[in-house]
Automatic annotation (TrEMBL):
This is ROK family protein. It comes from Pseudoduganella lutea. Coiled coil: none annotated. The lineage of its organism: Bacteria, Pseudomonadati, Pseudomonadota, Betaproteobacteria, Burkholderiales. Belongs to the ROK (NagC/XylR) family.
Amino acid sequence: MRAPDLLYGIDLGGTKIELVACEAGPHAGLAVRYRQRVPTPANDHDALVEALVDLVRGADAELGANAATTSLGIGVPGIVDAASGAHLCANVPCLTGRELLPVLRTRLARPVALGNDCQCFALSEAHGGVADGKGSAFGLILGTGAGAGYVIDGRLVRGLHGAAGEWGHWPLDPALLRRYGLPLLPCPCGRAACLESYVSGTGLRRLHAHFGGGGDSAERLTERRAAGDPLAGRVFDAHLDLLGAALAHIVLAYDPHVIVLGGGLSRLEHLYAGLPGAIRPHLIPGLGVPPILPPAFGDAGGARGAALLARQAFSSLAATAAHQPAFSSFQEP
């Protein structure tokens, strides 16, 4: 089979869809040749499919490409079954329980891979980013919600059901709930007291409201703390403690060589200085804390990681054509 000239990566979020077209050559370094964004029709499945098809066909027209010269990867929120494309997706309601892969493969007539957006972020940082060559990396997104992906030697670990790295839905330690008098907050997943309800950007706002503030954003709280506001300082201290305890569980479960922070809260500089000390008390004595680093690619990491999934989609198709096993739960990008 002829290898694709271009890799298309799509980051499908709750409010926007971003497509990037990257050079596919082994020495191209995933250089971006084209980028386009459109709003997400999150509640209309047919409209969403049309938006995705239009984005891809628009890129084809702009770049002089076609189905024979491109491969496509898409990162979406939630748990994604790598084989069927069925997934749970609270941020894009019209996708919940639906199978997107068969529709897009038919409409676009090219290799398509679907993955979790946080896993795409981790994959991107492991290929040319701050986690490149680090052995194992846990790529963590702290934004509206909280999720992660785990990569070993450049390979994405998805697990049996595609749920590896769904760290945001681990429960918060009851001792920490009691320490700060926190309520059992409901989560969109249907459970209560999930980590993302407290340590995400949304969770930070909730902490501010819980301690008597107005539920300010991370940026506004940073300004308030710099101006000497004691409440903002208390909120950040509590958030750091909660996040440190949560990351300690990651260290114990995965023992990664590096942790990379993504999402809006990754821009909070105090996290990189404060998290090692916040993690350490929750670990087994003597166990070290891995480096905690900011991302190399910022907001572009999700789409870039999806382009790496596009490379995987082509490799899978080529392997199938050669009568070789195409997928396992431990996948090569």
